[in-house]
Amino acid sequence: MTALIHLPCAHPLPSYPKNTLFSSEENPIRKNLEKVEMNQWWKKPLGQSLNSAGVASFLSVATKKPHLALPHISVPDVRWIDWSELERLGFRGVVFDKDNTLTAPYSLSLWPALSGSLVRCQAAFPGKIAVFSNSAGLYQYDPDGSEARTLEESIGGIHVIRHELKKPDGTAEDIEKYFGCPASDLIIVGDRHFTDVVYGNRNGFLTILTEPLTLSLEPFIVKQVRKLEGYLVKHWHHKGLKPAKHMLLPEFHHCINSSLS
Predict the structure, then answer these.
(1) Which residue, 135, 63, 55, is CA-closest to 101?
(2) Could you tell me the pTM of the whole model?
(3) How many beta carbons lie within 10 A of that of residue 229, not counting itself?
(4) What is the DSSP letter of 197?
(5) Alpha helix locations (H) across the chain?
(6) Spatial CA neighbour of 260 closest among 6, 8, 74
(7) Residue 231 contacts by C-beta under 8 Å, 6 or more apart in sequence?
(8) Which is deepest, 58, 160, 170, 236, by most CB within 10 Å?
């Protein structure tokens, strides 16, 4: 039976041209536009935080299928993952979440300390790595794919899969099409129990949970949800609940680095 292991943006406001008949202070149209922008710039990150699919899934999983929220492997961050061992076991590719897994929340730049691990991952799975995010690449928040392209350039050309539905909703069809193999041959890595892990377990991935890279940039509501997730998972773990068994992972501890390099 697979066991659970635990180891020790800014959005600038656009400028509007001044009306030739009014100063910036006197122009009522411009003042109203500025007020609207001040009240709406935060909608994108807040919308990502208030994931309606995630709320519905949270209730369903917590009351009916709590094992779906339990990852096969839990690590502090991706540096602890032994990519070559996972490849040796028969896995064929890796899917990463973005926010707080590879980058700071809402950032499009790789967290510097993770660059070495990402290089090792690329060496173990050449051309078989992708990002599947609820921000960059999601049509709702990145309709023209500009964030996805910027992120791809930042992380060495790793592909960002475009998709319609937020995790944990949806199937693995887009991912399986990109990799050319079933989800059961793939690894998904993310920092959220009720989005990344639930999505991965529902669709047959090997699920690896990382701790968030930073909490300082997360909205208050996300921090509170994390606390609730942590409480529930700890409760289920103490009750002896285990994650679903994965056929390619007989010994989870072999996939964990004993030290960082």
Answers:
(1) 135
(2) 0.80
(3) 18
(4) I
(5) 28-40, 43-49, 52-64, 83-88, 115-124, 146-154, 173-179, 198-203, 220-238
(6) 8
(7) none
(8) 160
End-to-end Cα distance, the chain: 30
The one-letter amino acid at 211: E
Residue 174's pLDDT is what?
97
Q: Which residues of 84-99 are buried (b: 16+ CB within 10 A; e: fewer)?
A: eebbebebbbbbbbbb
Q: At which residue do the structure tokens 């964030």 appear?
A: 147
Instruction: Convert the pLDDT of each residue in 167-189 to its tens digit.
Output: 999 999 999 999 999 999 999 99
Residue 66 · residue 178 · CB < 8 Å: no
**Which domains are delineated in the chain?**
20-49 (no CATH), 51-244 (3.40.50.1000)
Distances (CA, A) of 63 to 31, 59, 68, 118, 209: 49, 6, 11, 36, 21
Smallest Cα–Cα separation from 167: which of 141, 145, 135?
135
Contact indicator for 130, 136 with CB cutoff of 8 Å: no
